[in-house]
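re: that chain from earlier
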Amino acid sequence: MSKFLNKFAKDENGATAIEYGLIAMLISVAVIAILGGVGSNLVTTFTSINNGLSH
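^ sequence. v structure.
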């Protein structure tokens, strides 16, 4: 039983998967934040173009 517990304690496969998951989450949060900023700028630009074409 102690061999099993020692092997389980030294196994790092689960920790690696969690680390990759956290990295993917951080990247997705950064992408969402960047696209949110770009999206609002695009709305402003297209509204300005639309107003210019309407007159």
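The CA atoms of residues 1 and 14 lie 21 Å apart.
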